[in-house]
Amino acid sequence: MTKSLVTTAVIVLSLLFVVALTWTVTYPSEGDPKNIKYVLWKNGLYALNLDTATDTMIGDASREQLVVGKTKAQLQEKFGYLANPAEASPYLKACYQDSSWKNRDALFIRKSSWMVIFDGDQATDLVLIKGC
What is the structure's pLDDT at 40? Predict the structure, then answer.
């Protein structure tokens, strides 16, 4: 290895470290969708606590990209597990039953208020259940 290659590698690594540190200090809250851990998790590069991830999705303007168009198997891989409405909390179950989606194939992401609507095996909609 030449001296200039080593110097370049050290400079690049130093810059990456400064960027990561600045990003971490700028967005320290785990509930912030700009938090570096959440961004890395979205891209499959970090094993974020999945309950934290589903909570953080509320503030994520591009959350639909995580779900819509994915298969049930892909979503289970990303979120750990999906629950059918019968397995959801009584509140979520009641909201589902009183909604316009009640006759559609729907699963909840973990124990969160995120409901995914499917057409066949493919997710077509992501719905946050609140105030039903």
Answer: 95
- 72 and 119 in a single domain? The answer is yes
pTM for the predicted model, two decimal places: 0.85
The whole domain housing 109 covers: 63-132
Q: What is the pLDDT of residues 19-45, one digit of tens each?
A: 878 878 888 888 899 999 999 999 999
> Which of residues 62, 79, 99 is at a domain's end?
62
Domain boundary among the residues 62, 81, 101 is at 62
For the chain, the domain total comes to 2
- DSSP characters over the chain: --HHHHHHHHHHHHHHHHHHHHHHHHS--TT-TTSHHHHHHHTTSS---HHHHHHHGGG-TTTHHHHTT-BHHHHHHHHS-EE-GGGS-HHHHHHHHTSTTTTSEEEEETTSSEEEEEETTEEEEEEE----
39 and 77 share one domain: no
